[in-house]
Specification:
Elements: H1 3-13, E1 27-31, E2 34-37, E3 42-44, E4 51-52, H2 64-75, H3 80-89, E5 96-100, H4 106-114, E6 121-126, H5 129-135, E7 143-146, E8 159-165, H6 171-177, E9 178-189, H7 195-201, H8 214-223, E10 227-237, H9 243-248, H10 263-266, E11 271-282
Parallel strand pairs: 4-7, 5-6, 5-8, 6-7, 8-9
Antiparallel strand pairs: 1-2, 2-3, 9-11, 10-11
């Protein structure tokens, strides 16, 4: 089955999850490879198998080479400990799960495989066209789209869980689309996260050597009074052939004062520390 046909079929089966980004009303049907809402607004289904819900052009710094480097690192197991912990908090019953800032799609697909005995519904969105196009190449039942975090094209109270790995948030939108007792799983770095890489890339007095996410935690607590914070800490052994990819996949190498590393310095990156806080919020 072609990607566009597979996506068309998915949309026909899940129309109630979506809302029109133009009028915020319901989608009524899928016809001629278009989503059509009750007010007649139509949106094409891309030949690559995704839908472009954005109402305006958005520039993303996450280009194809960076996303391919990210995929290689994630397939090697970089996020495995994080996804395993999130899965421990998910229901054993079928869920509808949204991945915010899905990138090239590997995390949501790895979660899908870990929960292969559960008939979940998965949706991933991003503003990076390169990322979403790569995501549609994966072997998955997930639906991918380009969408605006501030104006999500999803119906009220339609998701059981939202997963957000190192991405921005819009808590008002999250609460709108989550069901009662739905959960947000937000992952943020601690001061120790990837310290080996930061020490290679920046001088000791550079601002990139420090992390302080206390404001993020406080804002999350304000929006989700019923919440908990779980620390996740493990070492990831970086395969020798992926040490350049480890650096390329992270926004850390974009910094103003970043050092250009030699091949010998890159090979020093034998392992990195994954030290993050998992913020789990529940909608009352």
């Amino acid at each position: 089955m072609k990607k566009i046909d597979k996506t068309t079929q998915w949309l026909q089966n899940h129309l109630t999850l979506l809302e029109c980004p133009v009028c915020h009303d319901k989608f009524q049907r899928v016809i001629d490879q278009q989503l059509v809402c009750v007010n007649g607004h139509s949106i094409n289904i891309n030949k690559h198998g995704y839908v472009y819900f954005l109402r305006h052009g958005v520039r993303s710094e996450y280009d194809r080479p960076m996303l391919l480097a990210r995929r290689a690192i994630l397939e090697a197991g970089f996020f495995r400990g994080i996804l395993t912990k999130i899965n421990q908090y998910l229901s054993k019953q079928a869920m509808t799960i949204l991945d915010v800032g899905t990138g090239e799609g590997t995390p949501i697909v790895q979660l899908e495989k870990a929960r292969s005995d559960v008939s979940d519904t998965y949706v991933g969105f991003d503003i990076s066209r390169a990322g979403v196009q790569l995501a549609t190449q994966l072997d998955t039942h997930a639906f991918f789209c380009l969408a605006d975090l501030r104006q999500l094209p999803f119906a009220d109270h339609s998701f059981d869980a939202i997963m957000e790995l190192f991405s921005p948030s819009d808590y008002q939108e999250f609460r709108r689309i989550l069901k009662k007792q739905g959960k947000v799983f937000k992952v943020i770095p601690t001061a120790n996260y990837l310290h080996e890489m930061r020490e290679l890339l920046y001088a000791n007095n550079d601002q990139h050597q420090q992390y302080d996410n206390s404001a993020v935690r406080e804002l999350f607590a304000q929006n989700f009074p019923q919440h908990e914070i779980v620390n996740i800490n493990y070492q990831f052994a970086v395969p020798q052939n992926l040490r350049s990819s480890m650096i390329e996949m992270s926004p850390l190498h974009w910094g103003k004062n970043v050092r250009k590393l030699t091949d010998a310095e890159i090979q020093q990156l034998t392992s990195v520390t994954v030290d993050v806080d998992l913020l789990i919020g529940t909608v009352n």
